[in-house]
Amino acid sequence: MAETKTIAVNRQARHEYFVEESFEAGIELFGTEVKSIRQGSVNLKDAWCDIEDGEIFIKQMHISPYEKGNIFNKDPIRPKKLLMHKREILRLFGMVKQQGLTLIPLSLYFKGSRVKVQVGLCRGKKLHDKRDDMAKRDAKRMIDRTLKERNR
User: Fold this and answer.
1) Taking the alpha carbons of 83, 85, 91, 94 in that order, is the dihedral positive or negative?
2) Whole-angstrom Cα distance, residue 27 to residue 4?
3) DSSP 8-state class, residue 29
4) Mean pLDDT of the chain
5) Which of 23, 36, 56, 87 matches a 20 to 30 Å C-alpha distance to 107?
6) Is the pLDDT of residue 75 over 80?
7) Angle at the Cα of 51 (from 124 to 72), degrees rounded to 5?
8) Which residues, 6 or more positions from 84, have their beta carbon under 8 angstroms from its beta carbon?
């Protein structure tokens, strides 16, 4: 079993969306991009996925140029192709079109020596949903704090 090492997590995605389902996908990268990712210079904050002509692409994922890459560096926010099975892509395409869901990259990690992306099939949260989540989180924090003080 290949070990996994997390590179980047899109924390904002869980705040902005309900994650219905998640999928693992490979990602098509160039050598200097992989070296830059190994240094940890990647940002998933504004990234999203799109399906075009039966292929899935990740857009607005920023990979900083590798310092020693000179002419081999690519555009930091170029669309990057994700590697998934055709039937998975078609299933996702149907769900996105019919149910109005969005594909958002949740995390980027190494699985062995390969870079993988966890893509979430997400439904947008309304403002009251975000407030409910914040209230639940605050209540849980207060309960944990009270129990910790009581157990002393």
Assistant:
1) positive
2) 15
3) -
4) 84
5) 87
6) no
7) 110
8) 23, 25, 26, 56, 92
